[in-house]
Design a protein that fits this description.
GO molecular function: FMN binding; oxidoreductase activity
InterPro entries: Flavoprotein-like_sf, FMN_Rdtase-like_dom, NAD(P)H-dep_reductase
Protein name: NAD(P)H-dependent oxidoreductase
CATH superfamily: Flavodoxin domain
Organism: Kribbella qitaiheensis
Number of strands: 6
Domain NADPH-dependent FMN reductase-like: 1-138
Radius of gyration: 15 Å
Helix content: 25-40%
Length: 176
């Protein structure tokens, strides 16, 4: 079992990335935390051919090598963050997500008006284009605040950790 973890945030102290680091810490199987979001070039269909930019090649290789993918992305200005949408655009030309089990965790704060619903509606739409298999029971909204993160960058709030564990277990059970 190999799970790819992709954060839609480029923020250094991102709660989304902290959730995925925590998932990596909890996992009893191989995980890879994707870390080149900021390095991807802007998507241009004219560049979606060999030779691909090295960062795009690595992205597609990681997607292809994974048995499943777990996303955690914020909503920005009512949609997916541009850098994360760019990553998704680069996956459209590959076949790595075809029928691959995917899920997401939303950690918008309790005060967030839509709880990230618009971003996840957009994510759902894009994942449909790449023919990914959304594992609905593994997708979750687990509101948290920055105070839920320890100085080591992991989530410490018990309820949030339990929610992350539930998502991991549910997603990986689809592969058994």
């Amino acid at each position: 079992m190999h799970l790819l973890l992709i954060s839609g945030s480029t923020r250094a102290a991102s709660t989304n990335t902290a959730v995925l680091r925590t998932a990596q810490h909890l996992a009893t199987f191989k995980t890879t935390l994707y870390d080149e979001l900021s390095a991807l070039p802007a998507f241009n269909p004219d560049d979606d051919r060999d030779p691909l930019p090295a960062t795009v090649t690595r992205l597609r290789e990681q997607v292809e090598a994974a048995d499943a993918i777990l996303f955690c992305t914020p909503e920005y200005a009512g949609a997916l963050p541009g850098s994360f949408k760019n990553l998704l655009d680069w996956t459209v030309g590959g076949t790595g997500m075809d029928r691959k089990p995917v899920a997401w965790i939303n950690v918008s704060s309790v005060a967030a008006p839509t709880g990230g619903a618009d971003a996840h509606d957009s994510l759902r739409k894009v994942l449909g284009y790449v023919n990914a298999t959304i594992v609905e029971d593994a997708c979750a909204r687990i509101p948290m605040t920055r105070q839920s993160i320890d100085p080591d960058g992991l989530v410490s709030a018990a309820a949030v950790v339990a929610g992350i564990q539930h998502c991991l277990t549910t997603l990986t059970n689809t592969l058994a």
